[in-house]
Every structure is written in C-alpha cells, then in structure tokens.
Write a structure and sequence with these properties.
By secondary structure, this protein is α+β, with helices and mostly antiparallel strands. Helices cover 28% and strands 36% of the residues. The chain has one domain.
Length: 181
C-alpha cells in the first residue's frame, strides 16, 4: 500500500481530468454532435461529473469520470468497491447512478455503460473478491488511504478485474495518441 493521499488534491486532479478534451472525443464516438457540460453540484454529489446532451434525441446522459495516471495495459480495469469518502461506504463500481463511466488513461479512454457495470460488479463481487484474495486469474486488490477534512483518514479498496470479465458493460475503447508528460 502506498502513502496517504489527500482528498482535496485527488478532487482537484479529478476535476481537471473531467475537462480533458479526450473524454469529449471518446463520448462523441457514441453520440456525435452531443454537447458536454459540467454537472450541477446536486448531481455531482451522486457521482455524475458531466452531462452529455444528445440534441438528436434530446436526451441527457450522466457521465462519471475516473482518471488513472498511467497507461492502460489492455488487460484489466480498476473498480473501486469500498469508497474513501466515508467509512464502510461502497465505491462507485457498486453504486454509480451515471449512465456512462469514462475512465481516462494516458493512452486510452474506456467507456462503460454505468447500469450494466454496476449490475455485473454486484453479480460477481463475492467471487471476484475471493479470486483477488487468492490472487487468481488476474484479479487483485488495491488498498489506498485518503485524508479528508479534519484530518480523518479513510481507506478505499479497489478490485483489479480482467477486462474480458467486463465485455458486456464495456462500450468503447478509444486509443489515444501519446500525450506529453
């Protein structure tokens, strides 16, 4: 396990990635010509970072953005199952209300159908957790600590899941040109 991360720093980094044009490029492949804007704070507290407006259908889609500061290895995905937002709180992979989850890596954007990702994670959670604890079949656990307001530290747990286990919820892998560091 690495050192303790700062919640406010993580939040600022996440907000910067939400404005990354590569997110809009990937979502435009699913909804050409759609507009993308920052979600209102009332929606952000439930995990929706962006609103995608498809003018052809006049439909709004909630988008949750996750960023990894590493290249995607093409083999697995990190799913938060215990959140660092508060003690004993399930993470976004089990609770998101977003229509899409966009995961930004340095070399790719992966877009998942939110409800299908949650359903798949819930259906297989116990088995995947057991595989990870036994370090079987490409599954593993990552634990991080985050310091929040008032100096309290919370832990989060993420499951690393082989990407082939998420082929149903995975809608798009948009490969990116390398970005300068």
């Amino acid at each position: 396990m690495s050192g303790v991360r700062d919640f406010h720093s993580d939040l600022a980094t996440g907000q910067r990635y939400e404005r990354d044009p590569r997110i809009a490029q990937a979502l435009a492949l699913l909804h050409p010509g759609a507009g993308l804007s920052v979600a209102p704070s009332t929606m952000q507290k439930y995990g929706s970072d962006l609103i995608l407006h498809d003018s052809e259908t006049d439909r709004l889609y909630r988008v949750e953005v996750k960023a990894r500061q590493a290249p995607w290895n093409g083999q697995d995905i990190v799913l938060e199952v215990i959140s660092s937002n508060a003690p004993f709180t399930y993470g976004w992979a089990l609770t998101t209300r977003a229509d899409y989850i966009a995961v930004l890596y340095r070399n790719a954007v992966l877009v998942f159908h939110g409800p299908a990702l949650v359903a798949t994670t819930r259906q297989h959670y116990q088995d995947w957790l057991e595989y990870a604890q036994q370090q079987q079949s490409g599954f593993r656990l990552i634990e991080t600590k985050t310091r929040g307001q008032g100096g309290r530290t919370f832990g989060s747990i993420a499951l690393v899941v082989p990407i082939e286990k998420l082929q149903g919820p995975l809608l798009l892998v948009h490969r990116l040109q390398p970005q300068p560091a």
